[in-house]
Write a structure and sequence with these properties.
two-stranded antiparallel ribbon, globular
Length: 224
């Protein structure tokens, strides 16, 4: 049985699309040029499905998040070539440490001035918009080639980049509400609701998620 989408998304999301091997952090989606990307990340089994595979066991490993670790091709090969050195417990520790490091990067950032807050958010919005324009369902490539595998890149870039960026923005906003006027606060709340719904929909199909509030983008860029 293949790995289910929900397990793939959970793994890529918690790893932020980066190789989980210590001191590697290679991006598992490589940008070739401004229009083309390829997936190099590999979802390695901590315990092999086959009893004779790397770190194999009698019952075999499952295709679930708990038994997977996101790695670059080099480190996937390394751990499977030396399973006696890279044990299941060690790989799970690598995974835990990497995911904790990602959580720290998303920690609350505080600002003393509104222009600093908005400048910080503007950079994150710019990156998100660039990804959406390049790979999103309304991108030129997606419209011209509706049966291409571009949607795979889009799904992974959402959880690798856009959702973490949204969380950084939300954390910054929540920690800086006192810098905003009432009208700005109202607009910021619209983005927070959009971000929450966007993340949920990235992992499961739901309806009624608020679209990105263009008023929020306008408010940010008019103040930087």
């Amino acid at each position: 049985m293949s790995i289910q989408d929900k397990e793939i998304k959970k793994l890529w999301g918690k790893a932020a699309g980066l190789c989980s091997f210590p001191q590697c952090d290679i991006e598992c989606i490589k940008l070739l040029d401004e229009d083309h990307s390829i997936i190099i990340g590999e979802m390695a089994h901590v315990i092999a499905k086959d009893v004779n595979g790397p770190r194999g066991s009698l019952n075999g490993g499952n295709n679930i998040y708990e038994n997977l670790i996101l790695l670059c091709p080099t480190h996937h090969t390394l751990i499977d070539k030396a399973p006696e050195l890279y044990t299941a417990d060690l790989l799970l520790k690598y995974k835990e440490n990497h995911e904790n490091k990602i959580k720290e990067k998303l920690s609350v950032k505080s600002f003393s001035k509104k222009d600093e807050l908005y400048s910080y958010i503007a950079k994150l919005l710019t990156q998100n918009k660039s990804i959406w324009q390049s790979y999103g369902p309304e991108s030129d490539e997606a419209i011209q080639n509706p049966f291409s595998n571009l949607y795979i890149i889009w799904e992974l870039r959402k959880i690798q980049d856009i959702i973490p960026n949204n969380l950084k923005i939300v954390n910054a906003l929540k920690n800086s509400f006192d810098l905003m006027s009432q009208s700005e606060y109202n607009i910021a709340c619209q983005f927070i609701e959009h971000a929450a719904g966007f993340e949920i929909r990235a992992y499961e199909i739901i309806e009624g998620v608020p679209r990105f509030p263009v008023e929020f983008e306008r408010m940010i860029f008019e103040n930087v």
